[in-house]
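Lab notebook, bench 4. The sequencing result for the construct came back, and we need a structural model before the next group meeting so we can plan mutations. Quick request posted to the team channel:

Model the 3D structure of this chain.
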Amino acid sequence: MIDLEIQTLRNDQLEQLKQGVQKPGTTLLLINGPHGVGKSSIVREFINVIESSKDPILWLDPSSIRNDEDLLKYPQLLSHSLKTNSPLIKGKIEDAAQELGREAFRLEALATQTAAGTKENADPLPNLADTWVRIMKEKFMVEHKVQDGNETFTPCLLILLDDFETLSKSQQLWLKEHLIDGLAEESKSPLSFIVTTTPEEVENTRNFFPEDSFGYIDIPLSPFTEEQLEDFLLKVSLPEVDPKDFLKQTTGLPENIKKVADDLLNRDLGEDDLRMVENLLAGKTPEQLEWIEVTAHLPEYNAEGLRLYFEEKIAETAYVWLGNQGSLVRLTDGQLAYDNQMRSSLLHWTRKNNPSKFQKHNHMASQYVKLLRKFNGSQGCEYINHLACLNFFDETDLQHLLGVSAEEYINFIEDNPQFFEVSGRNKRVLTEYFDIVQEYRALLPSSTTEALRKKASEYWAAKSDNLKGEMQTLKQRKTVEESKLQEVRSKIAELDNYLDKDVAKVSDEEKERVAFEERRKLLDEAKQSEVDRRVKSSRRLHTVINSILIIAGIAFFYFGILAGQMSDPVATKGLQSSPLVPCLFGVALIVAGILRPLRDRITIQTSKLESRLEKKQAKGSKKAAKKKGGKSEDSGENEETTSIQTSSPYPEELSGAETLIMFKRSRIEAKADEIQERVDDLREAVREIEQTLEEPLVA
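Done. Here's the predicted structure in token form:
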């Protein structure tokens, strides 16, 4: 198990080997690393992988020549070292061995005859190694047909040279001549050399493989890191071991890792630790024992981790109960945390006494630890899990859905922008994290996301309906304002026709008539405005006078009544001495105070209004003249000239009627600008609503 998990940590390098072997042409895959780093182990693991591969592969391991210095035996030793995963090629391996054996027998007979002198003037004996190379090319480095004869394939030839630097120089040269150069020369089939060596021998090893004939793939192996060892310890059921301490003991080398891990798994629990665990478990119910055993597997003490194994209510109960025990979990610096010695002893005891349950709990906790690492802790997992229920969201949405805890989520989003994409003013979880979120939810038998998803759906349904209604209202208002704007611009165009003598032929009488009507309208407006201003300024005085009249009327009325009661009715003679007179006078004063008009007859001098109107016209004409003719070319005029221009702002060629029309045009143009601003605001509001509806809260 330990060996398997160590090899699992080399999955990336194994994948490099697979891809390198599949490359066309001749390839050198150079595995380098210090002694004990696992170079030979990864080669053996790769052989196990290709044995079960569907692709036809033929591989040769020359390690059989390592302890034999007789170079003449190498061809036959290599011939017997050929292996394959293809049944069709297995038959050809046997044929090649037999053919090489016959050739070796023939060469041996020739050598005997030559030595005995029975064969005179014989040619030099052929080299058996050359014959072996020829047989390899003819038998294995050509296309092969499958049994039905309809399909062909070219097998991949793989040469394994493990610990190349440990071979003798003569062995290295023989391999280069007959194996490296001999097979690589004019090779048309996929040919790969997997060579392992130390970092110090990398350059020397490369010299045996010409750059013009080989493609290079470097696969460096280094000692395992603390993060890799953390995964390894979880997988081999040692969650209580600190990865940092484990790295110091093993230096990250596979051989040391295997030895130390074996010692930790096989050690016995000390008497003091055993007694401490037994006291912890004594007197507990089966349910409480389950809580204790489960929580020891969690990397940190929290209620969310317990929900991996229990329903939400049970997990909350277990969390509170364990926190109050004070043995496995203690209060440290205001927070609940594990007692590391107790947790380590408890895990070791559970692993020895109930290995199947230990493996079950440990496997689930291992998956949880991986997710915590990806999301920066348990809180990160929970935040991403909840936010993944939503599509696009903003701060307002989170505050409505999450209440007081929304601030925590907003801070998490700001601190971890790598998990989110931003679109306009909205955000959402990146799609590449959804698979991890699904893994997280699969671990939890009870999920808190359903209630949030339902609440978000209801909220979005109401929000989208409101937004659609608001958008419809805004569009209607925009249509009305655009209609007003069109009317105003039509009026401006009409006035431009009067002013543009070259384009529109308008009679002077018509211009005068328009000017007269506009002037009368302006005077009426000015007069009405002045009357309203005076009435408003004297309203307080009118109120005081009316109040005095009413009070005086009430006083006379009561005086008449009191006088009537005190006088002798027989002695009263005539109406003049009757108390009815002050009463009637009092009533008259009251009626006058109530019915007295608030607005007296106000006389407005037309000449003053006309003077004021001319000043306004001058300002408007000045603005129009600037728009039409630009700024004055002579910016250095003296103050006297400026004073003249200010007092007479109209161009000399404009008549009084035209000046009045230009003044009217400037007023209408200001109104057009105001309407245009409202239209722009309405258009922007509609655009924002459309964007929000295009990015729904719930997909």
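The first strand starts at residue 26 and ends at 32.
Will bring this to the meeting.
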